[in-house]
Amino acid sequence: MITMEDWALIRRLAAEGVPKAKIARRLGICRTTVIKAIASGDPPRYERAPAATSFTPFEPRVRQLLADTPDMPATVLAERVGWTGSIRWFRDNVNRLRADHRPIDPADRLTWAAGDVAQWDLWFPPRKILLEDGSRSLLPVLVMTSAFSRFMLGRMIPTRKTPDLLLGTWSLLEQLGRVPRRLIWDNEPGIGRGKVTEPVAVFAGTLATKVVLLPPRDPESKGIVERRNRFFETSFMPGRHFGSPADFNDQFTHWLGTANARVVRTTKARPVDLLTADKDAMLALPPALLHLGWRNHVRLGRDYYVRVDTSDYSVDPRSIGARVDVSADLDTVQVRHGDRLVAQHPRRWARGMTVTDPAHVTTAARLRHAYQHPAPPPSPAEDLVRDLGEYDRAFGLDSDQVDPS
């Protein structure tokens, strides 16, 4: 068999008009080999004839199992077919066969129109954040990327529960100043699985937008925002320290201003330069959403505390026994009795905290003392003692005109 260099030389000499016999004598090969090299359009390659291996007897059964379960692990396959040899050799052969049985899922290239889509996700920074009680916790960061402009926004939130997700979404949309026509999520439990939760449906209806839940195994439709998560970990996180969630949000917001001014490789443009056209095609932002956040209507018990998420907050004990309205956003917890504000606290992100206003404790002590030591009722004799001047005034008599005798 001739080498690749001889094959290339034969074809070049033949193209220059050198006779085949002369080429054969020059290279020391037979004329038939020269004729075959000239006629062959493909370079020569060595192909070993297939031969049976130790895996060959097991191959039909492995193919049968892969036809039913393409993702069956190689270790399970080895057990099912009775393989006792090298697991590495077995795994290499299984991987060769698996491609023939795995269903094909082609990925289309997606184009995004201005104002149409914002992709949303939760990013968990690989560093615990210091909380109010001295503990540290991994907290979620709600991130948004507009698909057309690639403009990014993000904010750390206390939990991944529906009230906090919607509060965070509203906060980011307020920063953006407009509402994309579609908000794309994967199956985040706080947003919905299969269909959106009722609070999310109300939220979307108020904004006149549509929340889209992606089907399983469709990473391309939300790949823009997920690639940003890796970008945050490699470009934002290194060398940073955070004293609180508020400190994280301040640093992250400042850094995003710089990141949004960088040229994106796929669009060959800066997100800030495309943002105006993107926002012009979006929907108008409503002035306010009154139904957002944690809401509850409860009767205040004797311990005069209400619960928001996992923490308890004190309330003015003069409202004990009455029904009060509890509301909380990402920063503040408020309790109202009718139109009267009976409690206001900074919201705590640590779990299981008890937040107490000293004024509520003082009021409770005063009310408890009054309850345990009631004032004695007046005696009957005291009730019968009246000022005689009251009778004079009742009859219209001036005390100076009354005869003292």
Tell me about this structure.
It is a single chain. The chain is an alpha+beta fold. The protein folds into 4 domains: 4-39; 56-101; 117-284, Ribonuclease H-like superfamily/Ribonuclease H (Nucleotidyltransferase, domain 5, 2-Layer Sandwich), CATH 3.30.420.10; 294-372, no CATH class. The protein contains 14 helices and 18 strands. Strands 5-4-1-7-10 form a 5-stranded mixed beta sheet, with helices on both faces. The protein has a 4-stranded antiparallel beta sheet with strand order 12-15-16-17, with no helix packed on it. The longest helix has 15 residues, at 87-101. The radius of gyration is 40 Å and the shape is elongated. The mean pLDDT is 88.
Any idea how many domains? 4
Low-pLDDT residue spans = none
Mean pLDDT: 88
| CATH homologous superfamily assignment of the largest domain | Ribonuclease H-like superfamily/Ribonuclease H
> What's the CATH C level of the largest domain?
Alpha Beta
* CATH domain topology of the largest domain: Nucleotidyltransferase, domain 5
Q: Which range does the strand content fall in? A: 15-25%
Largest sheet strand order: 5-4-1-7-10
Major sheet description = 5 strands, mixed
Alpha-beta content class = alpha+beta
Count of individual beta strands: 18
Distance between the termini: 157 Å
Give helix % range.
Answer: 25-40%
DSSP summary: helix tally: 14
What are its keywords?
five-stranded mixed sheet; single chain; alpha+beta; Nucleotidyltransferase, domain 5; 405 residues; elongated; 18 strands
Q: What is this structure's SSE topology?
A:
Blueprint: H1 4-15, H2 20-27, H3 31-39, H4 59-68, H5 74-81, H6 87-101, E1 117-123, E2 129-130, E3 136-137, E4 141-146, E5 152-156, H7 162-176, E6 178-179, E7 182-185, E8 192-193, E9 195-196, H8 198-207, E10 210-213, H9 223-235, H10 245-259, H11 271-280, E11 283-284, E12 294-299, E13 305-308, E14 311-314, E15 323-328, E16 332-337, E17 340-346, E18 354-355, H12 358-372, H13 380-384, H14 388-394
Parallel strand pairs: 1-7, 7-10, 14-18
Antiparallel strand pairs: 1-4, 2-3, 4-5, 6-11, 8-9, 12-15, 13-14, 15-16, 16-17
